[in-house]
Recover the amino acids of this structure.
């Protein structure tokens, strides 16, 4: 078994008698670096995916559309129905195991690079920088009394934040209501009250979460931050400060013989704290608030380069590496998660490919049987043909199971792509051909244009003998 590593809980102490700690505003400094570029690339892909998939058309409809009133979910070429929700459950389980696997392997990288809360927060921080300036300017502006410049800068920042919040909310709503019709109906006032409510709600939530709550969401609200630490072991990749190398920290002149003065490589510039979006000092050790974004790695590498020292005073490393032991990449827990993940991906893929495109539901009438004008025993049924395919199909309907069984009603039906067709039919049989109990019968539907598309549904035929 892999050993776990201690993760500090940095939840700030509350004042006596109060339940909540006052938030200390964080002024994040701008920086450059390789991990920042990777995060921007990831964020851009996610942002384009989020915005783009609502606008891309697939066939004659929006590529991703959760049509709640009709309970149909279009995801590119496929139509999913409430009956397919088992697949969604599988998908969520796969995502959970994917997250467990990546957490055991590389810590909280999901938070640092792909979590929507982080992605939107970095966008809002960028807006802050272009409207109010970098860290020092923003701190001065915060302290300065209200002036025309301060008012205009603040107005520009909040205006842009609200605009991004609106675009986010509008796009999100576009997954539930056709996005091309949504905007004109919003402007003309023809959209329903619930559409206005949800767009306003998600706009405000985005504005608050990415503009004001930021690291508070990661530290106090996100359940993942609470349990991720128990998944870390001494071979998990974590952002860590090399205490051996860095201490004793202290200022020095570039090129000085700092080792002779008893100093380590950390020049105590505090830049790693100034760029941290959660406002922590990684030199205090691994903390629950660290989202593994590596902003401190980028900025410290830059400092090291400028000082003429080796990079990597803060780096992605493992506890074993830091203590001089060998990191074990392949360990039982990681192999276990990988195996479970691959197994579930395989099962999910099989279920997707083996998913039937046509369903036939047979509902028997409440009246058990009746005798028709020909003296035959008759049972009535309601057939529901569900066509999940992207093409319309014409189906022939047949019934078998009792000698001389006759089907009355439509024998051919055309069902449009993604449509449900319901039709009542009756079956009749001679009294002499019926068994004493319920008789087993089955309805078969077969597509006339594609013989591979067919469905069978079993039901019972009741006669007086069953009484
Ligand atoms: S950025 Fe590097 S050198 Fe500067 S305080 Fe942080 S660890 Fe020390
Ligand atoms: S300590 Fe470093 S890696 Fe952790 S959140 Fe702060 S900047 Fe990101």
């Amino acid at each position: 078994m892999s050993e776990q590593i201690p993760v500090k809980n940095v939840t700030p102490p509350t004042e006596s008698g109060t339940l909540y700690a006052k938030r200390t505003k964080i002024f994040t400094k701008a920086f450059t670096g390789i991990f920042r570029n990777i995060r921007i690339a990831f964020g851009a892909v996610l942002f384009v995916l989020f915005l783009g998939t609502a606008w891309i058309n697939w066939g004659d409809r929006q590529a991703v559309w959760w049509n709640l009133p009709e309970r149909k979910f279009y995801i590119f070429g496929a139509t999913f129905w409430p009956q397919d929700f088992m697949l969604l459950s599988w998908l969520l389980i796969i995502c959970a195991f994917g997250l467990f696997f990546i957490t055991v392997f590389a810590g909280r990288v999901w938070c640092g690079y792909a979590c929507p809360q982080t992605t939107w927060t970095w966008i809002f921080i960028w807006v802050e920088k272009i409207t109010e300036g970098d860290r020092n300017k923003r701190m001065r502006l915060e302290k300065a009394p209200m002036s025309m410049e301060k008012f205009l800068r603040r107005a520009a920042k909040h205006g842009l934040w609200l605009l991004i919040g609106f675009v986010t909310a509008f796009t999100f709503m576009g997954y539930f209501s056709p996005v091309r019709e949504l905007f004109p109906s919003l402007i003309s006032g023809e959209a329903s009250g619930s559409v206005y409510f949800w767009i306003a709600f998600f706009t405000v939530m985005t504005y608050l979460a990415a503009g004001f709550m930021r690291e508070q969401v990661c530290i106090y609200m996100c359940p993942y931050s609470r349990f991720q630490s128990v998944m870390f072991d001494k071979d998990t990749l974590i952002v860590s400060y090399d205490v051996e190398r860095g201490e004793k920290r202290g200022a020095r002149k570039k090129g000085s013989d700092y080792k002779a003065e008893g100093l380590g490589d950390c020049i105590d510039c505090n830049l790693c704290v100034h760029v941290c979006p959660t406002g922590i000092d990684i030199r205090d050790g691994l903390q629950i608030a660290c989202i593994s974004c590596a902003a401190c790695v980028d900025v410290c590498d830059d400092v090291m380069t400028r000082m003429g020292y080796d990079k990597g005073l803060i780096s992605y490393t493992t506890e074993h590496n830091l203590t001089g032991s060998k990191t074990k990449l392949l360990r039982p827990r990681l192999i276990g998660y990988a195996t479970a993940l691959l197994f579930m991906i395989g099962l999910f893929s099989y279920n997707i490919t083996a998913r039937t495109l046509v369903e036939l539901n047979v509902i028997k009438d409440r009246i058990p049987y009746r005798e028709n004008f020909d003296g035959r025993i008759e049972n009535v049924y309601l057939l529901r043909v569900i066509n999940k395919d992207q093409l319309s199909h014409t189906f022939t309907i047949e019934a078998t199971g009792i000698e001389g069984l006759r089907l009355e009603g439509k024998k051919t039906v055309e069902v449009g792509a993604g449509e449900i067709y319901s039709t009542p039919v009756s079956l009749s049989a001679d009294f002499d051909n019926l068994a004493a109990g319920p008789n087993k019968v089955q309805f078969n539907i077969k597509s006339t244009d594609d013989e591979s598309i067919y469905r069978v549904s079993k039901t019972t035929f009741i006669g007086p003998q069953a009484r």
Observations:
- The chain has 15 helices and 16 strands.
- The CA atoms of residues 397 and 445 lie 5 Å apart.
- The chain has a mean pLDDT of 89.
